[in-house]
Specification:
- The protein is α/β, with parallel strands linked by helices and about 375 residues long.
- It folds into three domains: about 80 residues, no CATH class; about 150 residues, 3-Layer(aba) Sandwich (Glutaredoxin), CATH 3.40.30; about 120 residues, Tetratricopeptide repeat domain (Serine Threonine Protein Phosphatase 5, Tetratricopeptide repeat, Alpha Horseshoe), CATH 1.25.40.10.
- It has 14 helices and six strands.
- It has a six-stranded mixed β-sheet with strand order 1-4-3-2-5-6, with helices on both faces.
- The longest helix is centred in the middle third of the chain and has 30 residues.
- The protein is globular.
Length: about 375
């Protein structure tokens, strides 16, 4: 992926984080307190089919895809919740958006293999949405949810009780629901207020994106400082974007920020660590006086945090090895990245970039 796309991805990443920590818009067709839509999937891959919501029972319906790194991280957590609340909460994982361009259900076999390979790490009921995207439409789009993983809690009255990221608040909500202490009406009111805040944030992010696209870096950096003050919960994401800008405007300041982030806010954030490292080791990038020791350290940390299971992170690690002169490790790691990309059905553009990197490491030149 080239440098421009990576920079744009930084803004998209921050917007996605905002969506995960705030609400769907107040005008969404599906909100807390609404009846849960029916479950209409093409196939159940694991566990017992859940064809309807029984009154008096609690459910979690979570949306994911094999190519989604954060989804892979949340799967073991959902397994823990399913075990903790066994007999009290039914957990359902619905694979959606697996291949939006699919005209048939051929992708189901790949999803089934992924579920099988996960074994006990994915120990709850799992289904897959059909190529027509019924579940994606009636649940995700109806609730104005644009990012995965996203979880929906269905209460004992078969109503939507909560919508959000499975790693951000789900544990607390389930605990309250099991104890009959969760207030759906209060949650809906809170979500409406958060929606207003999200709309304001999206407006600010759109303005930031325009400044960056126009190369107005000084103004963009000033706006980022204001956003950090206004939205402290988004500080890490905004600092990641600040780093992107500084790599081209003030590399020394970018390195200082990367060192600080890697030791503090980004220490346990594999996605941000990966982006910090990538800016230094991107074969097509131009980061003067990059600290390759720091880049390799961050890339290794990101790979360890994801148990070497994320193709993009392994690609970055391979490039970091190459920049450090360890060609053998670079080649071996890039091969792992490509294997993961094939398993996760990554876009052809991404796999083409990885293959190009592997050729570079092997000394292959193209006319």
């Amino acid at each position: 992926m080239n440098r421009t796309l990576r920079l744009a991805a930084g803004v998209a990443f921050a917007c996605a984080c905002a969506a995960l920590t705030t609400a769907a818009s107040a005008g969404a067709a599906l909100q807390e307190g609404n009846p849960a839509p029916p479950i209409k999937v093409i196939k159940w891959l694991k566990g017992s089919p859940v064809n309807s919501f029984e009154k008096g029972k609690l459910y979690v319906v979570e949306f994911w895809a094999t190519w989604c790194g954060p989804c892979r991280q949340s799967i073991p957590h959902l397994t823990e919740l399913a075990k903790k609340y066994q007999g009290k909460v039914t957990v359902v994982g619905v694979n959606a958006f697996e291949n939006p361009q699919a005209k048939d259900a051929s992708y189901v076999a790949d999803v089934a293999k992924f579920v099988t390979d996960m074994g006990d790490k994915m120990n709850y009921n799992v289904a897959v949405d059909g190529p027509e995207g019924t579940m994606a439409s009636t649940w995700m789009r109806a609730a104005n949810q644009n990012g995965i993983p996203t979880a929906f809690v269905v209460d004992r009255q078969s109503r939507i009780a909560w919508i959000g990221h499975p790693m951000m608040g789900l544990d607390e909500v389930l605990g309250q629901e099991v104890a009959d202490k969760y207030d759906v009406a209060a949650a809906a009111k809170k979500r409406a207020a958060e929606a207003d805040q999200q709309n304001a944030l999206q407006t600010a992010m759109s303005s930031l994106g325009q400044l960056m696209a126009q190369g107005k870096n000084t103004e963009a950096l000033a706006q980022l400082d204001k956003l950090i003050t206004a939205y402290p919960a988004m500080k890490v994401s905004f600092l990641g974007i600040k780093y992107h800008i500084l790599t081209t405007t003030d590399p020394a300041a970018a390195l200082k920020l990367a060192r600080s982030l890697s030791a503090n806010e980004a220490k346990d954030n594999p996605m941000l660590l990966n982006e910090l490292a990538w800016q230094m080791v991107d074969p097509a990038g131009k980061f003067p006086n990059a600290d390759y020791d720091l880049a390799l350290s961050m890339a290794k940390r990101a790979a360890d945090l994801t148990k070497q299971g994320d193709a993009a992170i392994m690609d970055t690690l391979a490039c970091a090895y190459f920049k450090k002169g360890d060609t053998a490790s670079a080649i071996a790691t890039e091969k792992k990245a490509l294997a993961l990309a094939d398993q996760g059905q990554y876009p052809d553009e991404v796999k083409k970039s990885m293959k190009s990197n592997l050729d570079l490491f092997n000394g292959v030149t193209h006319a």
